[in-house]
Design goal:
The chain has helices spanning 5-14, 28-38, 66-76, 133-139, 157-166, 172-190, 227-230, 240-247, 266-278, 295-306, 325-338, 354-364, 374-383; strands at 22-25, 43-47, 60-63, 80-81, 91-92, 96-100, 104-115, 120-126, 144-148, 193-204, 208-211, 215-218, 251-254, 259-263, 285-288, 313-320, 345-351, 369-370. By secondary structure, it is α+β, with helices and mostly antiparallel strands. It folds into three domains: 1-20 and 103-237, ATP-grasp fold, B domain (D-amino Acid Aminotransferase, Chain A, domain 1); 21-101, ATP-grasp fold, A domain (Dna Ligase, domain 1), CATH 3.30.1490.20; 239-383, Succinyl-CoA synthetase domains (Rossmann fold). Bound molecules: guanosine-5'-diphosphate and manganese (II) ion.
Amino acid sequence: MNIHEFQTKMLFREYGIPVPEGRVADTDAAARNIAEEIGGDKWVVKAQIHAGGRGKGGGVKIAESLDEVQQHADHIIGMNLVTPQTGEQGRLVRRVLVEQAQDIKKEFYFGLIIDRVSQRIAVIASASGGMDIEEVAKTDPDKVIHETIDPAIGLPDFQCRKIASKIGLTGPLMGQAVKMMKGLYRLFRDKKAMMVEINPLAIVGDDQLVALDAKMNFDGNAVEQYPEIMELRDFEEEDPKEVEASGHGLNYIALDGNVGCIVNGAGLAMATMDSIALHKGMPANFLDVGGGASPEKIANAFRIVLTDPNVKVILLNIFAGINRCDWIATGVVQAMKDQKIEQPVVVRLAGTNYEAGQKILKESGLPFITADDLDDAARKAVEALS
Ligand code: GDP
Ligand code: MN
């Protein structure tokens, strides 16, 4: 689960990590008021969306007067911001963060991630900040520092000093860096984060270390224990189909292809997607309806899959253990009738109450394409495309 920059910065303040003075606004007039209230003579107006690379897309602007703050805010709020991370369709900007602009002397990268190899939290740091860290890691791997943290010890001062010195933070800046790293690590552990990234972490004005950008995401399952983090979820930034699906107890992930998939169990859903790809097709989504799916749940699954206009055929693949093929079939027939589905529907049923399910399908008189096994189903679905 992602949160916005302004929300991450509020968490940073709670944990003593220095961030510029600033607040969020949803109108240009409010943006101007904030600039006036926080004072100073230069401000930065920043689009708040769940994607990085905003600077490159024109979503981060420096203003030298209150009028300019308002103009930038007017331009950015409501814009469709396209960045290297949004895809070409872009993202609608609903809010801007207005901050006192800083004079940047040097930019660094600092992040904490869950490192799958060592199964530990790891620090990623670099003196090459402000730019795409993945790019730096590719072209200049020596410039990216990687340090794993021992969970039994945490992040002790000496390790912080070692990291700071490796990226060239010495003297009083080292002291600030140690304090920042410890605060960040505490925040990361306290809230079950998966990633926190400061890019750039900057030396500004009179040698102060400040987090100019801030990004954080959380484990969607773990975070349910932290209502204060759950509250920060912004449904408008998520795929509406995925939000609706989760409301119906369905695990749905939108993809780029045109074969809509309705499957029970995450493993079988993955195998179904692989089989479609093997037959040179592309799945339009991942969808796991879970165990014990009622006819209503199946009908909802059809509705959600079909809100994607790219779907040209639907593949239903159920291996019923806890599920019952007769319930599934009832749901499919209901969906076909109520939703006036025009796309071909390939049905593969196996397991509990298989005969009863087949009977329901046959007696409905609807034009299903039935399949014997997974491979057969995937092949027929891809064939139905042409
Ligand atoms: P991103 O493009 O989505 O990663 O957004 P950032 O918050 O990193 O902003 C993009 C760039 O704007 C940064 O890399 C900085 O170079 C610049 N920037 C952000 N805040 C300030 C500021 O207060 N002063 C100055 N001079 N530049 C800033
Ligand atoms: Mn950034």
